[in-house]
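## Example record

The block below lists the input lines for one assembly entry, exactly as stored, with component labels intact.
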Amino acid sequence: MNENSVGLVRRQYFTFAEPPNEMPLESGEKLGPITLAYETYGSLNREKNNAILIAHALSGDSHAAGYYSADERKRGWWDFMIGPGRSIDTNKYFVICSNALAGCQGSTGPSSLNPTGKRYNLSFPVITIGDMVRAQTHLIDALGIKRLLSVIGGSMGGMQALEWAVEFPDRIASCVPHATTTRLNAQGIAFDEVGRQAIFADPDWRNGNYLDEGVIPEKGLAVARMLAHITYLSEESMHQKFGRRLREKERYGYDFSLDFEVESYLRHQGSSFVQRFDANTYLYITKAIDYFDLKQNYGSLEEAFRHVTAKVLVFSFTSDWLFPTSQNREIVQALQVHRKPVSFVELDSPYGHDSFLIPNAKQEKLVSDFLRTVYDDQMNK
Amino acid sequence: MTPKHVKYTRPDLKIIFDLVRHGSSVLDLGCGTGDLLKKLIDEKQVQGHGIEIIDDYVLACVAKGVPVVHSDLDDGLDGYPDNSFDYVILSQTIQQIRNPDATLQEMLRVGKTGIVGLLNFGYWRVRHYLAFQGEMPKSKVLPYEWYNTPNIHLSTINDFRRLCADAGYQIVKQVNVTNQKRGQFLPNLAPNSFAELAVFVLQVR
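Predicted structure tokens for the full assembly:
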């Protein structure tokens, strides 16, 4: 056991927006009741000002750190960042991570039952990044926290961190969006659309009613994941990891069975994803990502950031071509127009968009140092 | 490896610190590990921001709580509106920039006042080194070989003054420094020969 681990953790649930007090959505529809699955690590101090919210990416969940049982080898998805003495130090901070609205790891989503006891499927309303964040504010309220020390998230998590900074400036002291963007570009929307079409094309999708009919669109969801996974890597990292190596053979098979290591890897990524992820959730969450556009909501990015009071740290990675440095810089430039306190670093990493999920000494130091200065600042006030 | 910010004390930074008004806004180009900005923020309640190209220095700034952007000055200051800072500082950095004239123009667009710290290649010791050794001068301040130096645009005080005159920048103030001390007799009499470095306060005419 690693002594710096948060150790055994458990998933908790919080339910709100019970009818008739449903939560209004950006689309104009309403949703309720809503359950959010979440986990916490560390303890909330008496002043309740040491709380940090971690926002996960597309396929993430509330399990950011630790493990569910002593004999389990698998750790939370950001375990190397979160723990006693780690970058996000649970000796000091109270860390919260919740599964996003429309998720499939315990939070209310398309596979949940609606108030009449039937599964939502495609009658689940389309939600946005803003809706995800508004749902999180209810959880933060319930935990008795008025102001978060920070909201930290990469990729879709970064969109949530930005949404917090823009929509709830009084409720966060800082935020750390990374490997992210203020609006998805055409290329990003295109990749998401191919993923959705793969799911639609699977005959087992059954217009979204697959769970009621006892099937799962495994093939479609696996293809969606295989495609998306390529966008999370880089040419260099794929070359390093696989090259043209053949899988358990010396020469080409001259057939359509498996030849290359990289094929085997992608098939494994696809099939293991199907075990833990819901196809309809994939549709809803990619849609929320596609709709994200701070510029559209405010006319310009500069206008969107006008009332931001949070200290902001943005970082990107040299090899990330899905959310490249240039898109992360747009956040920084728009904040600088107002001379807001913002810092930006481009970290050197060969691992593409997924770099933020891979241990990196500079990332760990950066986040740790930034949080310390925000925390000290707050204590001195 | 780069001794610019760590190996020797920086008299220019002390001079610049004294020049900056209490409570003003400052953008420091090539801010290094952020020591000047940190001091300005703590002691003069300045709204300070830095730009730095070396990632480890950027991390050092973040660790001090100094807002900093990891960026190459040669890419310009596009994101910054006109006159958005009271001061833009460029100290012992201009010699490493690809287009010093363009950067000067940018800094005086973004800042109401520019402050430039300049290593003087006309300093008599430098001239002496070149004249009698017959090799490119090296010193504590200029430790590199000609082929690996990041200092690609060294100039004399007179060179710099001529650039300012040609571009229409007014030199509001010039502080001459030799042996860590400012305002001595010889350097003030003939700065181009006797000042090791000079700090210029610039404004657009």
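Residues 1-7 of chain B have pLDDT under 50 and may be disordered. Helices of chain B lie at 11-19, 35-44, 55-64, 100-110, 124-133, 157-167, 185-189, 191-194.
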